[in-house]
Amino acid sequence: MRTILYIIQKEFLQVFRNKSMLPIIFVVPIVQLIILVNAATYEMKHIRLSVVDFDLSGTSRKLVSKFQGSPFYEIRSAHFSYREAEDQMKRGNIDMILQVPAGFEKGLLKENRAKVQFVINAINGQSAGLINAYSTMILLDYNRELLIEIVNPAMLAGTRNIQTDYSYWYNPKLNYKTYMVPGILVLLVTIIGLLLSGMNIVREMEIGTIEQINVTPINKIQFITGKLMPFWIIGLFELAFGLAVGKLLFDIPLEGNLGLIFMSASVYLFVILSFGLLISTITQTQQQAMLVSFFFMVVFILMSGLFTSIESMPLWAQNLDRLNPLMYFIKIMRMVLLKGSGFADISHHFWSLVVYAVFSLSLAILRYRKVS
Amino acid sequence: MPVTSVNVQHLTKRFGETLALDDITFDAGKGELFGFIGPDGAGKTTLFRIMTTLLLPDAGICKVEGYDVVKDYRKIRSICGYMPGKFSLYHDLTVEENLNFFATIFGTTIRENYDLVKEIYQQIEPFKDRKAGKLSGGMKQKLALSCAMIHKPEILFLDEPTTGVDAVSRLEFWEMLKRLKRSGITILVSTPYMDEAGLCDRVALMQNGRIMTINTPRNIIRNYPLSLLSVKAGDIYRLLGDLRKYPDVHSVYPFGQSAHVAFHGPDIEKESLEKFLNKKNHDVVEIMQVEATIEDCFMELMKTPGEVINH
Question: Does A363 touch chain B (CB under 8 A)?
Answer without folding.
Answer: no
